[in-house]
Design brief:
This protein is α/β, with parallel strands linked by helices. It has helices at residues 15-25, 41-48, 187-196, 211-214, 236-243, 256-264; strands spanning 2-6, 31-34, 55-57, 62-63, 84-88, 94-98, 101-108, 116-122, 128-134, 140-147, 150-156, 165-170, 173-179, 182-184, 202-205, 219-222, 251-254, 272-274. A hairpin with a 2-residue loop joins β12 (165-170) and β13. The mean pLDDT is 95.
Length: 277
């Protein structure tokens, strides 16, 4: 089984990621694995033409499910304090006011009829206190807690009753993950451990960013975007990867043209495989 891994649906328009999605849509790959969870993943994937049940959320460690948007939370059905009012502001933002003070802001899902996606609650000083994030079916996706407006903790429910994964932050950096009664020093280690639980799979990535940190064992890098950056130089992360014999990525698929570029510049070619991409 060959699996495409992408970091986030936010980058679905990137040529390499679009290529990966097409591999899954066409049946040339068996599944798409998503490293960054998203509360609206099922809807976004359906718009792309992919059945959500073929997409594995590596953070939740389960395949996605179809979401019934008819069960979503109508924005004025939110549980709020007594005497609260729901208001659409002149800039089209949505607020909850109580006794003349704004106590929350509401965000709707796009292309929905006022279905709640997230609610940001404020403390008495007007700073973010906590944030509730929902799926389109109204189930709780995550809760985030803040201090002096800075994120401290994210609790992921993924539509379940109990917390599934906890992220902790220090000085705006996610520095600790707790999941399945295990501790991980960062999110990348946790994601990589998820993939490592499936040693029978072959994984494929196309990007040279965060993917290199969370790629599981048995991962192939396919360079759909080429080996040169926007300045015409070989990508720095690729150069490091090719020189590092201990790197877990031991195969890099490139076109004949890119192979020739790397060979001409005297990069090691032992990891390179020429493929029609």
């Amino acid at each position: 089984m060959t699996v495409e891994i992408i970091n986030s649906l936010a980058y679905a328009d990137f040529p390499g990621i679009a290529w990966q999605i097409e591999q899954v849509k066409s049946g040339r790959r068996d599944a798409l694995w998503l490293a960054t969870p998203h509360e609206d993943a099922a809807y976004l994937l359906t718009k792309m033409g992919i059945n959500p049940t073929k997409v594995y959320d590596m953070y939740a460690q389960r395949y996605l499910e179809d979401v019934d948007s008819r069960k979503g939370i109508w924005w004025t059905d939110l549980p709020v304090p007594n005497n609260a009012q729901f208001i659409i502001n002149q800039d089209h933002t949505k607020s909850v006011f109580s006794h003349g003070h704004e106590i929350a802001k509401i965000r709707w899902f796009s292309s929905s009829k006022r279905i709640v996606q997230a609610v940001v609650w404020f403390d008495i000083d007007g700073k973010i206190d906590y944030k509730d994030i929902y799926r389109r079916d109204g189930k709780l996706f995550a809760k985030q807690y803040f201090s002096d407006g800075e994120l401290l903790e994210s609790d992921f429910y993924f539509g379940q009753e109990a917390i599934q994964v906890k992220d902790f932050y220090f000085e705006k950096q996610r520095n600790f993950v707790y999941a399945k009664e295990q501790k991980y020093k960062n999110a990348e280690d946790y994601i990589a451990s998820t993939g490592d639980q499936s040693p029978q799979e072959t994984f494929e990535i196309t990007q040279l960013g965060r993917e290199l940190a969370f790629a599981p064992k048995n991962t192939i890098l396919t360079l759909v975007d080429g080996v040169l950056d926007d300045k015409g130089k070989v990508h720095r992360n690729l150069a490091i990867l090719l020189e590092d014999s201990t790197c877990k990525i031991q195969q890099v698929n490139v076109t004949q043209r890119d192979f020739d570029i790397l060979k001409t510049q005297n990069f090691p070619t032992n990891k390179l495989r020429v493929k029609r991409i």
